[in-house]
Design a protein that fits this description.
This protein is an alpha+beta fold. It has helices at about 45-60, 65-80, 85-90, 115-120, 165, 175-195, 200-215, 245-255, 285-300, and strands at about 15, 20-25, 25-30, 40, 100, 115, 135, 145-150, 175, 220-225, 235-240, 260-265, 270-275.
């Protein structure tokens, strides 16, 4: 994907070298391991891989193969990091400067639409760690200090609001079911777009149309940076509030491009990536099986 827009994309995300599952209050959370190391990368360098991996997880969930989905999610976060739900979800921004967080109706993180900022942040600090996130409040409940113990937090090298110190810390966690739900919703949208022009009955068409319209990423921000040399092209630097929003953008760009590199296999339905614009199958095996079925159909 980035190769189709070379020179116009720049963003970053952080990931840890290893993650683990923890059962807390009947929910399963994913969190960095204590001894894991943090690294920074550009998600757009691996955009096609990210899309295929998260869509495969969504496909597993859609088919109720939850063990495969859970295994796929663990592989996903080890490669790309957690989604950054803490900064993705709120309707307001720079939440540390405000005493309340406003959340979408029906969100999975909590059953509230409004809550205090400190209460909200603590939803993502479920896993006990040696490293602590310290939140100090005044008498009004406003956060006057947020800091992460015993670590040179990666936030120090980037220009981001203070709440990202939590997202990029070892103390941060996300619930497994949140990621499953997101992956499934993304896959359903992918399936609806891919099959939209292949169906003829009005009911299915309307169902696909509703799914596609419900995909509505918000809070995408960017800025233009000029190059250091005269011959350098301007750079479009995306200011994503989370890996999740970056994925939303990758998906939207892929599905609306005439050079789609992530597609659905015409035979088995799996998502796959290919530089070949005419590619319709994820593997030679699927192409051969499809040709066999076509041949049999002609001979009947």
């Amino acid at each position: 994907m980035k190769k189709n827009n070379e020179g116009n994309f720049r963003t970053f995300w952080f990931k840890y070298s290893d993650y683990e599952l923890k059962e807390i209050d009947e929910f399963t959370y994913i969190t960095p391991k204590e001894a894991s190391k943090v690294t920074m990368y550009d998600p757009f360098d691996v955009a096609d891989e990210i899309l295929v991996d998260i869509l495969m997880v969504g496909r597993y969930v859609e088919k109720d193969a939850l063990d495969l989905a859970a295994d796929g999610i663990m592989k996903f976060v080890k490669k790309y990091g957690l989604l950054g739900e803490l900064t993705y979800l709120p309707l307001n921004t720079d939440i540390l400067k405000q005493d309340k967080v406003y959340l979408p109706i029906g969100n999975l993180v909590c059953d509230k639409e409004t809550m205090s900022t400190s209460e909200y942040i603590k939803l993502f600090l479920k896993c006990e760690k040696k490293q602590k996130v310290i939140i100090k409040e005044n008498a009004k409940g406003e956060i006057i200090e947020l800091s992460v113990e015993n670590e040179a937090n990666p936030l120090a090298i980037v220009d981001r609001p203070g709440e990202y110190a939590v997202v990029f810390s070892r103390a941060y966690s996300e619930c497994l079911v949140w990621i499953m739900h997101y992956a499934r919703t993304l896959y359903q949208t992918f399936e609806a777009i891919e099959n939209y022009n292949k169906v003829e009955d009005a009911y299915t068409k309307q169902m696909y149309d509703n799914i596609i319209r419900n995909f509505n990423p918000s809070k995408i921000a960017c800025r233009v940076l000029m190059g250091n040399k005269k011959e350098d092209l301007p750079i479009l630097e995306w200011n994503f509030n989370s890996l999740k929003l970056a994925i939303d953008t990758m998906f939207a760009l892929n599905e609306t491009s005439d050079r789609r590199t992530v597609k659905m296999c015409k035979h088995c339905g799996k998502p796959f990536a290919s530089d070949n614009l005419k590619a319709e199958y994820c593997s030679p095996q699927c192409r051969n099986q499809a040709n066999v079925y076509k041949s049999r159909a002609k001979n009947k």
